[in-house]
Amino acid sequence: MDYQAKIARNVAAIPRSGIRDFFELVQGREGIISLGVGEPDFVTPWHIREAAIYSLEKGQTTYTSNLGLLSLRKSIARYVGDFFDVAYDPAREVLVTVGVSEAIDLALRALLNPGDEVIFHEPCYVSYSPSIVLAHGRAVAVETSKADAFALKPESLAAAITPNTRVLMLNFPTNPTGAVTSRADLEGIAKLAIDHDLIVLTDEIYSELRYDGLTHVSIAALPGMRERTVLLHGFSKAFAMTGFRLGYACAPQPIIEAMMKIHQYSMLCAPIMSQYAALEALENGAPAMLAMRDSYHQRRDFIVKRLNQIGLDCHTPGGAFYVFPDIRSTGLSSKQFAMDLLEKEAVAAVPGSAFGPSGEGFLRCCYATAFNDLRSAMDKMEHFVQTL
Ligand code: PLP
Fold this sequence. Notes:
This protein has helices at about 5, 10-15, 20-25, 45-55, 70-85, 100-110, 130-135, 155-160, 185-195, 255-265, 270-285, 285-310, 335-345, 370-385; strands spanning about 35, 95, 115-120, 140-145, 165-170, 200-205, 230-235, 245-250, 320-325, 345-350, 350, 365. With about 400 residues, it is α/β, with parallel strands linked by helices. The structure holds pyridoxal-5'-phosphate.
C-alpha cells in the first residue's frame, strides 16, 4: 500500500522535531553530557509528588470536569491574578490542559480557519509552526536577531501583518534564546494587535524563570489586551513537573468554551492526580520554585562567562534556562558543530537551525544540568573549539 498517499497532506508537510531527531543519535550512548532536552534536572519537589500520591491513596482515580477541578481553577485564577495582574473567572475563563503543548494546539484549532495567517517570532519553540499547519493555518515567521537580543521589535511585526493575519504568538522568556522583551516593545506590539484586531496567544511557560531582578510583564495585562489574549501557562518548567503533563489556558469565556469543546472530545480532561499535584504546587510550591530559579541563575552566569571565554559570543539571556551562543566564528554550520561536538567530545547540544532558519549559526544549550556536568561540558567545548 502507498501509505504516504494515505497520510493527510498537512501532516505529511510538517517535519519531525529537530530536537528529537538529534536526540535519537544520543539514545543508548554512554557517557554523554547532555545540554539538550529543555527540562529541569530537579526531581519534582517532594511535597508536590506527595500530593499526587495522596490523591491515589484516597482513590481519586476518576475523570474530572472537562475544564479541570474547580479547586485547581480557583487556585490558577488566584495565582495568575497575583503574578500577571490579570483577573479571570475560574468558573468560565480557565481551562486545565495536558501541558502547554495541548493548550497551544487547542487555541490554534479553536481560532483558525483554513489559510488564516499566524505570526510568531523566530527562533522559537519547535511546535509553533507545525501546530499552526496542523490547524490548517499559514505560519508566518518574523525573524529576531542577536543585535536585538532576540526580542521581537514592533517594526518587524508591523511589516509581517497582512489582511489575513488572525493570530500573533508570543513567548517571553523565549525558548531557545532566553530572550525577554521590554514593556515599551510589548506596548508597541499590543497597539498593533489592537489596530489589526488580532488575537494574541502568549506562551508564558518560562515567566517565573527571570534573572537579575527583571519583572515579568504579560501582554494580557496591558490596557485593552485582556479581551484579545489567550494566556498559556503550565507547571513543567518552573515547578519541574514535565512528566505530570499539566498546563492551562486563561481567556475570555467564548474562546475557552471553543477550546473546551475540542479538549472535551479529544482529551476529556487532564489526569486527576496531576491536577492535585498542580494544586499543591500553586498553593505551597513557591519556596522550592524560587530555590530552583536561584540555582539556574548561578548556572546561567557560569555558562555565559565560559562560552565567551571559549570565544563563542553569547549574550546574557534574561530568562528561561537556555543560552544561545553564536558559533559562526568556527565556520561550521550549527548542525555540523553539534554533530562534531557529540562525536568528538560526547557533549550534546541542539543546532540552532532546529528552531527555524534564523537559528542557523547558533547552538542551544540548556543549562538545567548539574553544575559539575556543566563545568566539564564547557571544558570539552573549549577543547573542541581549540582543535578546529
Ligand atoms: N512552550 C514552550 C516555549 C516550551 O519550551 C515548551 C517545552 O519545552 C512547551 C511549551 C511545552 O510545555 P509542556 O510541557 O507544558 O507541554
